[in-house]
Amino acid sequence: MLDFENWTCPLPLRDTPTVVMGHGGGGAMSGELVEHLFLPAYGKSAELTDSAVMPFPGGRLAFSTDSYVVKPMFFPGGSIGDLAVNGTVNDLAMSGARPLYLSVAFILQEGTPLAEVGRIATAIGAAASAAGVQVVTGDTKVVDSGSGDGVFVNTAGVGVVPAGVDIRPARAAAGDAILISGDIGVHGVAVMSVRSGLEFSTAVTSDTAPLHGLVSDILETNTDVHVLRDPTRGGVSASLNEIARAAQVGVSLIERDLPVPAGVSDACSLLGLDPLQVANEGKLLAFVPAADAPTVLEAMRAHPYGRGARQIGTCVNEHPGMVVARTALGGTRVVTMPIGEQLPRIC
Questions:
Q1: Of 2-11, 44-53, 76-85, which has the strongest mean pLDDT?
Q2: How far is CA 47 from CA 170, 173, 245, 247, 337, in A?
Q3: Which of 22, 200, 226, 282 could hold 29 in an S-S bridge, CB 3.0 to 4.6 Å?
Q4: Is the pLDDT of residue 9 over 50?
Q5: Residues in a beta bridge with 78
Q6: What are the PurM-like N-terminal domain coordinates in residue numbering (predicted)?
Q7: DSSP letters of 37-100?
């Protein structure tokens, strides 16, 4: 039996003896759940990254798994099918790996139209082909009507990490430039626009895309890339806070340099959301030494998925473990880790 009183983290998890939506949001509640429930149960205490890097004869393997419960299953720019493939490919790529193989498992609710399942399977096949990976194994389970919600997809992926590559959150260092590959918040807003029937001044479509080609181009610059992260659940805010805490460095952002497109800005103003906390599915953050930033930015901008790349901040010695943004008015604000889920079921 779990002893909630001996958990060390403060509210809200201690006073939540049952699972709530915020536990799956990629923010503070998700982190507390992993740290205080899952890791002790597994007997593990490890640096948490998008994928695990493990030695094997002749090199290193990256391994990752993820589950997708997005609602609706089809949205502007994609579906749960290509999202599942691209998400796992990207988790492998954030350790510098070249993705090779995927598994795909379906959990289907009784009564789901087979035509919808077929559309999702076709999207998975097309996305895997486009990413150059093979779906090599899978599974299917069916739950009775009312026990699920259409289609849930679980994927796992394996890739190979090149020799000499060491990319992980703890390597962020004071003086690093923080780069982003393009506009933020578009996936979360694209899903929410369909779910809520919202229309904005400009069309917003999901940015779901495989990023391993972009990562490969970055690594070919032969610079010392310290950290890569795709800011999915919890958005840029969650990713930067996790990295700052893992490396015990401060993160300083310039708010006016954040690439927030008009449609995302409109949606966030209407819904009271912070664009930094809205999910992305085709963007990456890169931490590199400041001297290497121009070279890495040039390589990113030469790739179709990095044309909007720019520097958005730096790592500093001040305020270790915290993310601070300088506002357009010259003040500063603390960019906090999201507690739960701003937009539930977006991936």
A1: 76-85
A2: 8, 16, 11, 11, 18
A3: 22
A4: no
A5: 75
A6: 50-161
A7: IIHHHHT------SSEEEEETTEEEEEEEEEE--SSSEETTEEHHHHHHHHHHHHHHTTT-EEE
**Residue 187 corresponds to which amino acid?**
H
Question: 175 and 61, same structural domain?
Answer: no
The dihedral of CA 102, 91, 220, 170: what is its sign?
Answer: negative
Residues 284 and 186 in one domain: yes
Q: What is the pTM of this model?
A: 0.89
State the average pLDDT over residues 281-292.
Answer: 98
Tally the domains of the chain. 3
The answer to whether position 339 is within a domain reads no
* Residue 8 pLDDT level (bands cut at 50, 70, 90): very low
pLDDT value of position 270: 85
Kindly report the length of the chain: 347
Report the half-sphere exposure of 157 (CA within 13 A, side-chain side).
31
Query: Would you state the pLDDT for residue 10?
Result: 39
Q: Is 213 in the same domain as 93? A: no
Sort strands 98-109 and 134-143 into parallel, antiparallel or unpaired: parallel
DSSP state of 330: S
Tell me if 120 is assigned to some domain.
yes
Same domain, 99 and 140: yes
- Residue 32 sits in the same domain as residue 109: no
The amino acid present at 86, given as its one-letter code, is: N
Are residues 314 and 176 in contact, defined by beta-carbon separation less than 8 angstroms?
A: yes
